[in-house]
Amino acid sequence: MGLVDYLYYDDRRLDSYIEQFASPVTFDKFAEWTASLSLAGPNGEGKQTGHARPLTKHEKVEEVTQFLVDKDLVQGRPCGRQRELAFVDDTFSARRFFIPKHNIAIWMSKPAKAPTVSHNDFQVTYFIEDYTQRGNHEGPPSRYSGYSGLYLLSEELERGNKEPLRDLWDEPETGKLAFIRDPIGFFTKVGAHVGPTQNIRTVYKFRASSTDLDHPDGYVLCVIGYPLWIERA
Asked: Whose CA is closest to 59, among 8, 2, 15?
C-alpha cells in the first residue's frame, strides 16, 4: 500500500459520520513489564495495556470508507437526476478554483463521456469544499455551507446582469447557478485563483444534478457534490 497525498479533507463531516457508528478514539496496545527481587531470585511479570488516542485523519478515512462499503452506500458515477444517490467513489482529472472574496473553493472535472445512450453526452462534476469549518480554507469560516454560498454568489451576479441567467434547475427553490452554463466565464468574473490540472480520486456526497439539453457540445450532465476527501490519484 502506497502513501496517500490528501489535497482536501473534510474534518467536520468525517467526524460527524464517525461519531454515528464508531468511537473517535483508538487504543494502541503494548506490553508492559515489571521486575522485582525476592529471596527466590529476580522475577518478571508482563501485562498488556493500552493508550487511548484520537483517530488520525487516514484512520478516519479508512473507517468511513469501510462503513460506506459495508452498508452499500457507495455507487458508481451517476447517470442522471438520482435523488437517492448517497456517495460516489470516482477518479477524475480536475482543477481547483478558489474565490478569495467569498471563500469558496470548487474542483471542476474535465468533461467526460457520460454513461448515457448518446455518443455526444458529457458529464461535468463539481466538488464544493464545504468551508463551514475553520482551518481548511484560506479565509475565515462561514455560517453557510459551500452550496449555499455558491447559490448566494450566483444570485449576486444575476442581479448585476441585464438579462437573467438561464435557469437549469427544475425546482425554483434551488436557484440559478451561473457557473453551470459557463463555468470558466463565471470563475473569471469572480476573480477565482485557478490551480493546475490534477488527477484526483474522491469520495463525495451527492448534492444535486442538472441536465443541459441545449448545450452546444451536446447533452451535458452536471453533478454537484461535497467531497469527504480528495487525494492525488
From this structure: 15
Q: What is the pLDDT of residue 47?
A: 59
pTM (2 d.p.): 0.73
Measured between alpha carbons, how far is 86 from 209 in angstroms, rounded to an integer?
Answer: 13
* C-alpha closest to that of 183 among 146, 157, 207, 144: 157
Contacts of 173 (CB under 8 A, 6+ apart): none
Which cell numbers in the block locate residue 130?
464545504
31 Cα distance to chain centroid: 40
pLDDT block averages, 10 residues each, the chain of length 233: 89 90 66 58 59 85 92 75 71 92 87 65 85 50 68 69 43 51 81 94 87 63 89 95
Domain range annotation of the chain? 6-11+56-232
Which residues is 47 bridged to in the sheet? 32
Beta-bridge partner residues of 207: none
Contact 154, 177 (CB under 8 A): yes
